[in-house]
Design brief:
The complex is a heterotrimer of chains A (219), B (133) and C (146). Chain A is α/β, with parallel strands linked by helices and 219 residues long. Chain A has seven helices and eleven strands. Chain A starts with a strand and ends with a helix. Chain B has a single domain, classed as 3-Layer(aba) Sandwich (Rossmann fold). Chain B has a six-stranded parallel beta sheet, sandwiched between helices. Classes of the chains: A alpha/beta (219), B alpha/beta (133), C alpha/beta (146).
């Protein structure tokens, strides 16, 4: 597997380092020559000086044989163009863009970027998971399909406490994936009873989220 | 016509002035407030401070009612991204982006964006002035 | 001080003769082992293990010529000559790695000063070796018309 990382800021640097340690073939492209010199000292000949949005740079980097191009510069417009150039001119199968402005995540997907990573949203969801009194937490957003994975704890006065999964009237396009009971994972069948205090992990359509929250948490 | 211009450099300011004088409703976006001094004294259009790749800034510039959108900042990638926002998110009927890099220009023209590449245009203009005399 | 394990990078150019002669003078005639190394550099646009038959046969020919030269024609003929063809991203790093692995005590390398975009340079390989080699390095800066 060959990966090209564009952008030698902190993210690009540590990403490259980690990927090398994992045994992948990696090339880091960075615009600033003095950064290139420093990184070459540390990594050897896997750092290249150039503008990753330029076709000539991508060609020299071997984008034509790359499995993944990851654009992690500090500028969203650069990350977008790097990924689109990689896709359009070099037919790279998977492009991953760092998105600095959370509002751009959806736009990037519309414009053909396969995966977007946004620091702000990642930190936000980590915070949500860490706050003990949050009864309803977003674990993962699959925005392509407008689906999301959520975790919610069943409150004692929830209408689903004590009911079998089959008998619960979930909102449309919602499914329970797992139950966590006293730290143990239960993969529920239709007969499994949900108890107050269980953590329910469910996949749901965005528009059904409010109804699901109401059902489980009964806020 | 309602026109949104992103980038108030020489080209952007000139376009905005000309469109404004000929009676169009113009709004011009630039990150630097000082860039707007390039506009003529009697410019009657709207000036918006901000980046042309932020949907909120573009909304403030009236992109939702725009008939035409022109991206002429000094950054190719900014122009490309702004043009795609105008085209894909706001469905502006006429979108034009200036792209200096000929290869990038070619790529995005093939992707259906109306592009202008000063590099190739000016080079061929100069060639024609040399060889026509 | 005679050296016992000497590495000589081979490039295939006429300059090889100069480095081989120099290595011969420096070697301990009875026991010295000389390792000739030719590196096929692989461009980033190709995978590292790409099949490059033309470059490889060029390298093999250069090594063969060099080996023959130091055994038969050189002023200070050498008996223990081994050659090695490597395929790597960068010649400098490959030569340094080889020097480490083979416990080399001297690298004899030739270089020429070139001017690129108004700057004089020794290229990439020689400075890398000078900086990173684990052993002594003798650089012969070649004269224009050798």
């Amino acid at each position: 597997m060959y990966l090209i990382v564009v952008g030698g800021g902190k993210v690009g640097y540590y990403l490259t380092k980690t990927l090398v340690n994992e045994g992948y073939e990696v090339l880091l492209i960075e615009k600033n020559q003095s950064k290139v010199d420093t990184y070459t000292e540390r990594f050897g000949a896997i750092v290249m000086n150039g503008d990753g949005a330029e076709a000539a740079t991508l060609a020299a980097a071997g984008a034509g044989r790359a499995d993944v191009v990851v654009a992690v510069t500090g500028d969203d417009e650069d990350n977008l163009v790097i990924c689109q150039m990689a896709k359009q001119r070099f037919h790279v199968k998977r492009t991953i863009a760092r998105v600095n402005n959370p509002k751009n995540e959806e736009l990037f997907r519309k414009l053909g970027i396969d995966v977007t990573v946004n620091h702000t949203n990642v930190i936000l969801s980590l915070i949500e998971q860490q706050i003990p009194d949050r009864h309803f937490v977003h674990l993962l957003a699959l925005k392509h399909a407008e689906l999301e994975v959520v975790e919610a704890s069943v409150s004692p006065d929830s209408p689903i406490a004590g009911q079998a999964v089959n008998d619960i009237r979930f909102p449309p396009e919602t499914n329970i994936i797992a139950l966590l009971r006293h730290g143990e994972l239960i993969i529920p069948s239709g007969q499994t009873r949900v108890e107050a205090g269980d953590d329910v992990i469910a996949v749901t359509r965005l528009r059904s989220e409010a109804a699901l929250r109401q059902l489980i948490v009964n806020e | 016509m309602n026109v949104v211009v992103v980038g108030c450099g020489r080209v952007g300011a000139r376009l905005a002035n000309t469109l404004d004088q000929s009676g169009h409703s113009v709004s011009i976006v630039d990150l630097q407030p000082s860039a707007f001094r390039r506009l003529s004294q009697d410019f009657s259009g709207q000036t918006v401070i901000g980046t042309g790749i932020d949907e909120d800034v573009l909304k403030a510039a009236g992109i939702e009612e725009a008939d035409a959108f022109i991206a002429v900042t000094n950054g190719d990638n900014t122009n490309i991204m702004a043009a795609q926002i105008a085209q894909v998110v706001f469905n502006v009927p006429h979108v034009t982006a200036r792209i200096y890099d000929p290869v990038r220009e070619d790529t995005y023209r093939r992707m259906g964006i109306n592009t202008i590449c000063p590099t190739t245009t000016i080079a061929s203009l100069i060639m024609s002035t040399i060889f026509s005399t | 001080m005679p050296y016992r394990r000497i590495l000589v990078p081979i490039t295939g150019s006429p300059d090889d003769v100069r480095t081989l002669e120099l290595a011969g003078t420096l070697a301990d005639k009875k026991v010295a082992e000389v390792i000739l190394v030719y590196v096929v550099e692989v461009k980033q646009s190709l995978p590292l293990d790409a099949s490059l038959p033309q470059d490889v046969s060029q390298g093999e020919a250069a090594l063969q010529r060099a080996e023959q030269y130091s055994r038969q024609k050189a002023e200070h003929r050498l008996q223990k000559v081994t050659s090695e063809l490597l395929q790597a991203r960068s010649a400098g790093a490959a030569i340094v790695d080889e020097a480490i692995q083979r416990d080399i005590d001297l690298i004899v390398v030739g270089g020429r000063i070139r001017t690129h975009l108004g700057k004089t340079t020794l290229g990439e390989t020689v400075p890398y070796i000078l900086k990173n080699a684990p052993c002594e390095v003798i650089l012969t800066r070649l004269a224009e018309d050798v």
